[in-house]
Design goal:
single chain; Arc Repressor Mutant, subunit A; 75% helix; mainly alpha; Tetracycline Repressor, domain 2
Length: 224
């Protein structure tokens, strides 16, 4: 039992140290040697628990995003059950998508998510994008299908654009909340989770419910 506890403690120390250094220096610039020094463990411990730096990064994304996505899917399941056989209401879908992340914002988990999302924007061509795609695969499919049922008049391309803007607003609120304090002269704070939720839902509903564009999105050019 003692060995299990020690192994678990060592694993968490490595994860916490890696997350801290990733926030300070980025994923690519942080070496395993720096992580082991921060965690106070040897390289063999990292290899034992994670096998590689990529697997360590994957474990960090999984630790922070899996609980949030699980809660998202639970809320979406409930909304769809209550609405069946009709599509779930758009507001309920957005609640399920946005609430778990906003609720986590002030916690250790929320701080970790901010770090991981920040890496996606700071290192757009790096491994962060791959990890985010992996963790969002199931939730992305489920929410995409629910949104298509709720907004049948929108083409897939137009819905994709609008959700791109909604997700961007969410990420911006999580990562760059201090900017809100600046542009509001200190009157608003992104740490006000309830008010952030109400404003974001209103914003998202207005954007998603806007009439379809009269022109279709141009076909994407395939690179040869």
């Amino acid at each position: 039992m003692t060995q299990i506890i020690q192994a678990t403690d060592t694993k968490q120390r490595i994860l916490n140290a890696a997350e801290k250094l990733f926030a300070q220096h980025g994923l690519a610039a942080t070496s395993l040697r720096a992580i082991t020094a921060e965690a106070g463990v040897n390289l063999a411990s990292v290899n034992y628990h994670f096998r590689s730096k990529e697997e360590l990064i994957r474990a960090i994304y999984r630790r922070r995003l899996e609980p949030i996505n699980q809660r998202r899917l639970e809320m979406l399941d409930q909304a769809e059950r209550e609405a069946a056989p009709k599509p779930a209401p758009l507001e309920k879908i957005l609640d399920a998508l946005l609430d778990p992340l906003l609720e986590a914002k002030g916690s250790d988990a929320g701080a970790g998510v901010q770090v991981l999302l920040g890496r996606v924007y700071a290192e757009p061509g790096g491994i962060a994008v791959q990890m985010l795609k992996e963790q969002m695969a199931e939730a992305g499919q489920r929410f995409g299908a629910a949104l298509h049922r709720a907004l049948p008049k929108l083409s897939r391309a137009e819905l994709a654009w609008r959700m791109h803007f909604v997700i961007g607003a969410l990420a911006h609120t999580l990562v760059a909340g201090k900017l809100l304090e600046y542009i509001s002269g200190g009157e608003c704070s992104a740490d006000d989770t309830e008010y952030a939720h109400r404003n974001m839902i209103a914003f998202a509903l207005a954007g998603l419910n806007a009439p379809p564009l009269k022109t279709t999105a141009p076909a994407r050019k395939v690179k040869s």
